[in-house]
Amino acid sequence: MLLLNKQMIQNLYSMNDCLQDVEQAFRYGQVGETVAPIRLSVPHEKLGAETLYMPSYIEPEDYTAIKIVSIFPTNAKQGRKVLQGMIVLTDAQTGEHVAMMDASYLTVLRTGASSGVATKYLAKEDATVCAVLGCGAQSVGQIQAVMAVRELKHVILYNRTVEKAESMKQTLQELYPDWNGTITIEKDANDAVRQADIVICSTKSTTPIFNGRLVKKGTHINAIGSYQPHMQEVDVQTLYNSDKIVVDTLEGALHEAGDFLVPMKREQWNPTSIYGEIGEIITNKKNGRTSQDEITLYKSVGIAYLDTMVAATVYKKAIESGVGTTFTF
Fold it and tell me: Looking at the structure, do residues 141 and 264 belong to the same domain, yes or no?
């Protein structure tokens, strides 16, 4: 078995690699060449924590994998990581478990790439202003992915605590030292949304973070933070105003996305308003953006076969480059 840590993976695998893999994985999913059961969540109630188990299989790639992620909020007080994850990759031709790798960087990358692919097909070609609502760890991958598919000139950062937005500004300046665009910080999410061609929602909020009436015509929204039934970043007005609502998978979105489930429970919104899955657009079964004035919304809660796809590519790159530590049971 090959062991790969975060630094090894960062040296091997880029956002552009991930965008290609994620788009291909969605193609596989659309034609029924993937298996991805709904993830299993095991709660640890006395600590307010949980562990998630996400298995999947991609038939054309001949790999299966399981990602295990633990989320322990109390770790922060002890100086430990709140979110810890790993991926175990299995050769589907032999059943051999060929690699174990850190999942933190890959999760940020593939979640970002999912939004990047959606942005490629749904955002205006001339979109230049991106508002980022929530500046936690996931937002870095979101911004990187959007930067890879659109020529941004202005990034607007909003976070409930301004310090995180300031830290993200510094991170972006270090990641893109030669970029000529501007980065500003807004103290009000609504003020950020008013200006944006692309909106990224990446928070753990349980109540909507902006007024959907302020979204201007032609805006594209990537909503990735509301991944549990009780969470809600996007208000029902945003759903009403969106000309196309696209999801990573219908099964996952209608099982986990609070942005949909909360208004459904209140009988304020009907899921028949969902236009389709991103895979349908990638495979030309349905159109992406068809006018400059459309408001488009991409809702993603994550799908495990994306993890299998990226892990398989990382493993193959590691073998080719002689990277990693070999461990024998």
Answer: yes
93 and 173 in a single domain? The answer is no
Do 241 and 292 belong to one domain?
yes
- State the Cα–Cα distance between residues 302 and 29, nearest whole angstrom: 13
pLDDT tens, residue by residue, 19-64: 999 999 999 999 999 999 988 889 998 988 999 999 999 999 999 9
Distance from C-alpha of 213 to C-alpha of 110, rounded to nearest angstrom: 30
List 204's β-bridge partners, or say none. none
Going from the C-alpha of 188 to that of each of 182, 191, 244, the distances in angstroms are 18, 5, 26
Contact 104, 6 (CB under 8 A): yes
Cα separation, 157 vs 136, in Å, equals: 11
Domain tally, the chain:
2
Tell me the β-bridge partners of 244. Answer: 296
Residue 288 lies in a domain: yes
Decide: 87 and 108 in contact? Cβ < 8 Å. no
Tens digits of residue pLDDT in 175-225: 999 999 999 999 999 999 999 999 999 998 999 999 999 999 999 999 998
Domain assignment of residue 129, given as a range: 122-302
Q: Which amino acid is at 235?
A: D
Query: Cα dist. 115→23, 95, 108, 145, 314 in Å?
Result: 10, 32, 11, 7, 20
**Collapsed DSSP state (helix, strand, coil) of residue 114:** helix
Q: Which residues lie below 8 Å from residue 123, measured CB to CB, with a gap of 6+? A: 146, 149, 150, 197, 198, 220, 289, 296
**Two tokens at 41?**
């969540």
d(CA 41, CA 265): 22
Instruction: Give pTM, 2 decimals.
Output: 0.94
Residue 73 pLDDT grade (very low, low, confident, very high; cuts 50, 70, 90)? confident
Q: Looking at this protein, which amino acid is placed at residue 326?
A: T
